[in-house]
Design goal:
This is Thiol reductant ABC exporter subunit CydC. Its main location: membrane. It is found in: Cell membrane. With about 575 residues, the chain is α/β, with parallel strands linked by helices. The protein has two domains: about 230 residues, ABC transporter type 1, transmembrane domain (ABC transporter transmembrane region fold, Up-down Bundle); about 240 residues, Rossmann fold. It is built from 20 helices and twelve strands. The protein has a six-stranded mixed β-sheet, sandwiched between helices. The protein has a four-stranded antiparallel β-sheet with strand order 2-1-4-5, with helices on one face. The protein has a two-stranded antiparallel ribbon with strand order 7-8. Helix 2 packs antiparallel against helix 11 and helix 8 packs across helix 12. The longest helix is centred in the middle third of the chain and has 53 residues. The chain is elongated. The structure holds adenosine-5'-triphosphate. The site of adenosine-5'-triphosphate has 10 residues, from helix 13. Adenosine-5'-triphosphate binds next to helix 13.
Length: about 575
């Protein structure tokens, strides 16, 4: 329930639409009852041949009633849908904001398709929360209470009959339907999430599936997933129609009961026959309010599950929120970074990716991190980006990293990771991702500087940079980092696909700009490291050597051996 309470609180911020929906819903319901009551009375009066003006006046009342009912129903739909759309849009923004904070560590727990299904599908499911769960019962109770007060002036027996009908159609039967529907609803959510996950994997892995000739097999799997989802939906559709019909049948039986009770009362002289048709008509229409209650538990259950699934993702972000933001000024200057006994494992109870790492990156220093694949180099950079929480202390300018907003760090860091994403658009669009203030002239010069003089700013870039070579992507990513005005550079093998000549030009450009900045480069290549202030050598998640190039070569340790191997391979 607590998750739905969040959503109710969220909706109450748009109080006006909520109140107007209830108000017009009540007006539409009560005018419908009044209209039918007037019709029933009119029929009975007409049989007694009253003066013409009485009939004309009553027909006029009925006409005005119909008009008010239609207008109120329209206003109710208008305000309730407006409130719903506002709620959905607020929810999307809220969840996007939360997901953005947690970043890539989200994928430790969720597959991308599942996340998509939660953020799109589950938010979509919540549209029924207001439209079918929150306000219709309020309107129903208000209309029923008003009707019962009116009917009590004519017959207490009919009041009891209506109350029994209300309890049956609005409480007992929906509760029974809910039991039956629960399993189906849960299967629908599971199948939707599975389908969404399969579709996402199919798209991401399309090329590999084609090359390994597994496309057809995967397609069949996808079709099977889709068929299961459709079948569950059909099942749910059939059940809900059945439940509505059952509820309607019971409400008609109640009307028959009103007719029988009314007839007995008229025969016994306890009720004026003039009002019998009116009471029957009232019982017909008043259950119009309770028939949709057949679907109330289904929508309630669906909304609750959707809210739970959404908030279970968000709760993670709450736990990871930084403590305070009071030190966010530190990153305006080139920062120093210190790791003190830092250990980290991606998953609990699994082997450590980093173990007792103690290392310093002084302000304005240039550091290279080298070591075999899988030794934890990229993970170390990711910890500086606050992508994950680690044990031990990470300090930026002497302040614990937990006290920095993740966004403040990202804002001030120039990053090139092993894989960079490129968006569908032009070269200009992809460069301006970092800083919108660059002029076309500056951007053209930047392309020349990163050794891409042949690219035009208006050249198209396809989704994920499909029309760019690996080396072009790396140079564009570097240009994007250069276009950003941070003082801390985190570069993870930024030139692994480049030839040595281009690589050297690129580094010249980079070091000219980053003269006073703190630079950390992860590299597999050992050439050109003489210029670095320090080299950190990692192996199996541990820092095994630290020092300048000449110091490490003199010590003839691990780095020296790596260098010898590289030399022998190149000879
Ligand atoms: N998202 C992840 N979830 C679980 N384990 C991961 C994840 N990313 C990396 N690892 C594991 O952590 C270890 C260190 O990975 P990391 O990418 O930091 O190494 P690296 O030294 O940068 O390797 P490379 O030089 O190949 O890029 C590896 O054993 C890897 O399998």
């Amino acid at each position: 329930m607590s998750e739905l309470t969040h959503i109710v609180k969220n909706m109450i911020q748009d109080k006006k639409d909520v109140v107007l929906s209830v108000l017009f819903g009540f007006l539409a319901g009560i005018t419908a009852v009044g209209l039918f009551a007037a019709n029933g009375y009119l029929i009975s009066q007409a049989a007694l041949e009253p003066p013409m003006y009485v009939l004309i006046a009553m027909v006029a009342v009925v006409k005005i009633g119909s008009f008010i009912r239609a207008l109120s129903r329209y206003a109710e739909r208008y305000y309730s849908h407006r409130a719903t759309f506002t709620m959905l849009s607020d929810l999307r923004v809220y969840f996007y904001d939360k997901l953005e904070r947690i970043g890539t560590s989200l994928f430790q727990t969720y597959r991308s398709g599942d996340l998509l299904s939660r953020v799109v599908g589950d938010v979509e499911s919540l549209q029924n929360f207001f439209l079918r769960v929150l306000y219709p019962p309020i309107v129903m109770v208000l209309v029923f209470l008003s009707t019962i007060v009116f009917v009590s002036f004519y017959s207490l027996q009919v009041v009891i009959c209506l109350l029994v009908g209300l309890i049956l159609t609005a409480i007992i039967m929906p509760a029974w339907f809910a039991q039956k529907q629960k399993k189906v609803s849960s299967r629908i959510l599971e199948e939707r999430s599975q389908l969404s996950t399969d579709v996402a994997e199919w798209f991401y892995g399309f090329r590999e599936l084609t090359i390994h000739q597994k496309l057809e097999e995967k397609e069949q799997h996808l079709v099977a997933s889709s068929n299961r989802y459709i079948k569950e939906q059909e099942q749910a559709g059939i059940q809900s129609i059945f439940h509505q019909s059952m509820n309607m049948a019971v409400s008609l039986l109640v009307s028959w009961a009103v007719l029988a009770i009314g007839a007995l009362l008229v025969a016994g002289g306890e009720l004026d026959g003039l009002f019998l048709a009116m009471l029957i008509m009232i019982s017909f229409i008043v259950f119009e309010q309770s028939v949709p209650m057949a679907l109330f538990p289904i929508h309630y259950d669906e909304s609750e599950r959707a809210a739970k699934r959404l908030y279970s993702v968000v709760d993670q972000t709450e736990q990871k929120r930084p403590l305070s933001t009071q030190h966010n000024q530190c990153l305006y200057a080139s920062p120093s970074i210190d790791f003190k006994k830092v250990s980290f494992a991606f998953l609990k109870d699994q082997r450590s990716t980093l173990t007792d790492v103690t290392v310093s990156f002084p302000a304005g220093s240039k550091t290279a991190i080298v070591g075999p694949s899988g030794s934890g180099k990229s993970t170390l950079l990711n910890l500086i980006l606050k992508q994950f929480d680690a044990e031990g202390e990470i300090l930026i300018d002497g302040v614990p990293i937990s006290q920095f907003e993740q966004e403040i760090i990202w804002e001030k860091v120039n990053v090139v990771l092993q894989e960079s994403h490129f968006f569908y658009g032009t070269v200009r669009d992809n460069l301006l991702l970092s800083d919108q203030n660059w002029t076309d002239e500056d951007l053209k010069q930047l392309l020349v500087d990163v050794q891409l003089p042949y690219l035009n700013l208006d050249d198209p870039v396809l989704e994920k940079g499909q029309n760019l070579s690996g080396g072009e992507k790396q140079r564009l990513a570097m240009a994007r980092a250069i276009a950003k005005s941070g003082n801390l550079w985190l570069l993870d093998e930024p030139t692994s696909s480049l030839d040595s000549w281009t690589e050297q030009r690129l580094y010249e450009r980079l070091f000219t700009q980053a003269r006073n900045d703190t630079v950390i480069i992860v590299s597999h290549r050992l050439a050109g490291l003489e210029k670095m202030d320090q080299i950190i050598v990692m192996d199996q998640g541990k820092v095994i050597e630290v020092g300048s190039f000449s110091k490490l070569m003199k010590e003839k340790g691990y780095f020296y051996k790596l260098k010898q191997i590289e030399k022998s391979v190149l000879q």
